[in-house]
TrEMBL record:
PANTHER family: FLAVIN-BINDING MONOOXYGENASE-LIKE PROTEIN (AFU_ORTHOLOGUE AFUA_4G09220) (PTHR43539), FLAVIN-CONTAINING MONOOXYGENASE (PTHR43539:SF78). It comes from the Bacteria. It comes from uncultured Rubrobacteraceae bacterium. This is Oxidoreductase. InterPro entries: Auxin_biosynth/cation_transpt (IPR050982), FAD/NAD-bd_sf (IPR036188). The keyword Isomerase does not apply. GO terms for molecular function: flavin adenine dinucleotide binding; monooxygenase activity.
Length: 307
């Protein structure tokens, strides 16, 4: 969203061989993250002469004669291995709650958010316990009244988010994936950073959080004890789900949902080890994706005899 600045993101990890500051003026804290990150990636592609094709829409990936056939809107490709890094931004997740369809106000997701000013004069319920929820709660609470709702009590973390902390967080999530368990959310292992903005929110009483409601009404929400809260807007900061429909022929989901990894690498798909999923679970952050992408590439080069 436009108001997400470099000063409010956790950290953009350097790509191999080129520091983030080489592609972006990191001293300009008010640079929009949506501008700075693509600018850095573009500078990286140019510096290393990477042949990136865009825009390309992949319709489906399937197996043909022992190789992968990738069908796109710019022609078909054949490959011996696939590293999928399509991310999650296209698949916003909004949990189902009774009464959601009858709510007379506005419901939107983080993905749809633009500016806080559009909510002036309306009471906004912000749902979610992640960093995005905190940032949007801060912005919206400056122009109107808000209520913060989360499933679990939030855990705040003092001190800067260092590279060491980032690696430790990635390792914790990766350990669960290697053991065949669903990954926890990123914030469950990183905690919420206590920034000056968070301290100011505390002082304003904005962080007085409530547990999740259990029903949505025409003009608000209600809790099991009968408490009712009137609201005009519900802002769902509830994360995203993987965008992997194009891989469906290769890996139908498990009976309980999700995709099982090999355990050798947290990116390697058990049903077809030639496929790696980078940018999910432990590799959802820039530091995690950096390390996981390198490991996946090395594994494919070795296993396919390309070295």
């Amino acid at each position: 969203w436009p108001s997400l600045k470099l000063s409010t993101v956790n950290r953009i990890h350097d790509l191999p061989g080129m520091q983030f500051s080489e592609g972006v003026d990191t001293d300009a804290a008010e640079v929009e993250a949506s501008v700075a990150v693509p600018r850095y990636f573009a500078a990286y592609e140019e510096a290393f002469g990477l042949p990136v094709y865009r825009p390309v829409k992949v319709a489906v990936v399937c197996e043909r004669g022992g190789r992968f056939r990738i069908e796109t809107d710019r022609g078909n490709f054949s490959a011996r291995g696939v590293i999928n890094a399509t991310g999650t931004w296209e698949t916003a997740y909004v949990p189902e709650y009774p009464g959601a369809g009858r709510f007379g106000g506005r419901q939107l997701h983080t993905k749809d958010y633009r500016t806080a000013e559009e909510f002036a004069g309306r009471h906004v319920i912000v749902v979610g316990g992640g960093i995005s929820a905190i940032q949007l709660l801060d912005e919206v609470s400056r122009v109107t009244t808000t209520t913060w709702v989360t499933r679990r009590p939030p855990e705040f973390r003092a001190g800067p988010f260092t590279e060491e902390r980032g690696r430790a967080a990635v390792a914790m999530v990766e350990d669960r994936v290697r053991r065949g368990l669903p990954p926890n959310s990123v914030v469950s292992v990183t905690g919420l950073p206590v920034t000056p903005a968070v301290e100011a929110m505390r002082a304003r009483g904005v962080l007085n959080r409530l547990p999740m409601f259990d029903e949505i009404l025409e003009d608000g929400v209600s809790w099991p004890d009968g408490t009712v809260l009137r609201a005009d807007v519900i802002l769902w900061c509830t994360g995203f789900r993987s965008s992997l429909d194009h891989l469906a022929p290769l890996m139908p989901g498990e009976p309980g949902g999700g995709i099982t990894m090999t355990g050798k690498l947290a990116t390697q798909v058990a049903k077809d080890p030639r496929v790696h999923l980078v940018g999910y679970g432990p590799s959802a952050s820039t530091i995690g994706a950096n390390r996981a992408g390198a490991a996946a590439a090395k594994e494919l080069v070795a296993s396919l005899g390309l070295a």
